Description:
Oligomer: heterotrimer
Strand order of the largest sheet of chain C: 6-7-8-3-9-10
Membrane topology (chain B): Multi-pass membrane protein
GO biological process, one term (chain B): transmembrane transport
Strand content of chain A: under 5%
CATH topology of the largest domain in chain A: MetI-like fold
Structural class of chain A: mainly alpha
Subcellular location (chain B): Cell membrane
Number of domains of chain C: 2
Shape of chain C: elongated
Family (chain B): Belongs to the binding-protein-dependent transport system permease family.
Organism (chain B): Flavimaribacter sediminis
CATH superfamily of the largest domain in chain A: MetI-like
Amino acid sequence: MTRSGGNAPPDRGSAGGSRMSSNRPIRLFRNLNAKISAIPMIATALVVFVGGTVWTIIYSFTNSKLLPRAKFVGLDQYERLWNSNKWLISIENLFIFGICSLIFSFIIGFVLAALLDQKIRFEDTFRSIFLFPFALSFIVTGLVWQWLLNPDFGIQSVVRSLGWESFDFDPLYNANIVIYGILIAALWQGTGLVMCLMLAGLRGIDEDIWKAARVDGIPMWKTYLFIVIPMMRPVFITAVVIIASGIVRVYDLVVAQTSGGPGIASEVPAKYVYDAMFLSQNLGQGFAASTMMLLSVAIVVIPWAYLEFGGRKSHG
Amino acid sequence: MDSSTATLPTSHAARAEPRGKKPQRRLSRRNIIIYGTLTVAAIYYLLPLYVMVVTSLKGMPEIRLGNIFSPPLEITFEPWVKAWATACTGLNCDGLSRGFWNSVRITIPSVILSILVASVNGYALANWRFKGANIFFTILIVGAFIPYQVMLYPIVIILREIGLYGSLTGLVIVHTIFGMPILTLLFRNYFTSIPEELFKAARVDGAGFWTIYLRIMLPMSLPIFVVAMIIQVTGIWNDFLFGVVYTGPETYPMTVQLNNIVNSTQGVKEYNVNMAATIITGLVPLIIYFISGKLFVRGIAAGAVKG
Amino acid sequence: MASVSVKNLFLSFGEVKVLQDLNLEVGRGEFLVLLGSSGCGKSTLLNCIAGLLDISDGQIFISDKNVTWEEPKDRGIGMVFQSYALYPQMTVEGNLAFGLRNAGVGRAEIAKRIKQAAELLHIEPLLKRKPAQLSGGQRQRVAIGRALVRDVDVFLFDEPLSNLDAKLRAELRVEIKRLHQQLENTTMIYVTHDQIEALTLADRIAIMRGGAIQQLADPHTIYNRPINKYVAGFIGSPSINFLDGAVTRDGKPRFTSGEVVVDLERYPFEDGSSDGACAFGVRPEHIAFGDAAADSPFTAEVRVDVVEPMGSDTLVWSKLGGQDFRFRVDGQIPVSTGENVRIGFDPARASIFDKKTELRL
């Protein structure tokens, strides 16, 4: 779509165009400056995003090892991938981690936002406290929680020293629950963001709605449940997409907190890709695994994009 | 009734006739629940920060004996000095300082370049729409959702071809590329919100593409440039994946070096040095966060809510 | 019997005093309009009556019950908001029923009340729709319906028509007036900044400014005998002419402004008012023109500066005693710029205000 105002070249006088049609500048050179300035965007979009993705997908069907080789082997890499224990654990971890962090960050984020929305004192202070971990990197987050969850010095030892000798809380050394140790750290880092999104959503709700509900005598919890939360659907959807696309990428946190251990108990797909590509010189596996990651993101994003942008037309 | 008693609503509570403000106990159940929950949550968020600081100020013997929450008996800054100047990663024993300066040398040009490219780009998209622009823009936004892992290796090949693989310049280009979707969106939305009449008036006055950008759009958009800067500085400073993939041991950014110091397997674990190093690494984004305040919130809102 | 009464109401947000020592009595079945420009405290007062704002001091009675500390739902009020404030995820029926169901009203009773309200407001065909599928006017009807089903004696309207376009506003205005006539003994308090709404709907109008009521009277009095210069200037469109000058009452009472002298023999002075500098106000629509002016107690000849035809009538700008002076003539009479015309008015219908206190003389 073009706008009449933005489409004509800037330096062309009104006389030129109307006098003779042969004077019309060639299409390609209209808006030349804008087009030149858009070259980085076009290059990024075409070469990196489209080109890179297509290239990776194509080479996931090859048996590339140390260097990419165009020797196609069909679905061999995918077969090997889904037979790999490490990959299966990665997927399982991602699944548990993803579901839990979605649920908990939603609940915690919404409750904190709703509490902050009660016209309380020190709102800014509380908000700053809840959000500051979001400014920190996953590496810093992972290392802090590695220290806090250290069984010899951290929370477990402190609780034990208070007299509860049988207290067991060493997620980072227990393969069964290690992913929850990572979850705690991830929630610490990320719930502030969810809270901010929810707070913005709550503040966007017409104040008269609250007044009407009060005049109607509807208790606050019912107002939230039946009126406000249904009204915040767009905010929730946006939050799901943001959190979900972050979950799939989770990498640094695991590297810093557990390096995938104990054993391979806390492996995640993003780490599988990195290890295959840059540590074990198994490029084909890396390409296949990253293609699977792309697929999982597509499963989340495409329905959303369809609802968000495709559905808009039918609403008129 | 004179107005002086109006400020003392509680004095009416005893009277039979309700008058003035509804008497409220300070410690109503509602307030206890609200402030109680918020305080518990605040402790959860603050505790790790506290433990980090406390641990970094203790000596190793005290750490082995005491508990992580107790304040240091004897404050020592030695772990900080060691973390900064002499902590070892592999064979290098010059501390985090090298990583810090690498990160500075990565962050500054990356921030400038990415904001420059994205702001001009957003401006072109908002005010100079040309055929096909929206197709590329859509690809760009969709691209923001593609896991980086998918594009990791193709970029290695590209950088290798142009001889920048493993260099800081290469990493600057990578940051510019991956910062482009969100920043372009940010600037495009902001420039679209500026009244179009202003742009048209400038056109009628004979101003061209760059004149309008520099003389009209740029001065009107300083807040959004600050927001973009906050997004980029924290994002690039905190990056780990691109740093570890596209640079070498000599050029590692701070996060990578920090991870290597703390998670290196050889030698005795010096938790106090580790925590000092962790704080130092987190300091830059933390300072930006606490200085920028509301703008930081605006930054994540801008990043989160699509146009 | 007072339906709503506000006694010595104070409201302040921190240091800012929004309402000060405000008193108001609204009779049973009365339609009272709170009128004022934005920020005058009219909506704030309404919210205090509704119990949506905590007051700093004073008392509020509704139907002779002290409701100062009551929750809004227990005050026996229904409220209609400017932004409609319908619950977007529920149907019209759901919107009407939600409050009642919460209050534990029986199913049959809810159905009965919804049916009555829907009939009264002509929204029966819309009951199954959602608010997003309704036009602005329909939404506001539903919002009124939601107040109606509460079966209360007092209705509070907070600028209910301000979000509608001019045509719908006029339609719904009549609708509200009709509703008030149908619902006997129902008190309505209506906030607006639109003087036409106020004049057409109100039994009494309270004109507010700076958190205080300037004048509380029926529309006729407000229009003809404004209590101060602010009220005079606020009510009436086009607005009233003010001529600066002085009043003297030693001997024959008269108003003097330069060479203009107006005989005030027939002007009904307020008791205890004093002479001196003043503003002489006369409404553009009270000025006679041409032959009709000849009979007026005061006449003058003025030069036409600007002519603004408005269809039914024409607004003419001229100068009297060197000061701007507007008057309204029938739209059919030709008036042209530069012409000298004769005008006249009856000083008895004028309003004179003290220069300093701005109070009516």
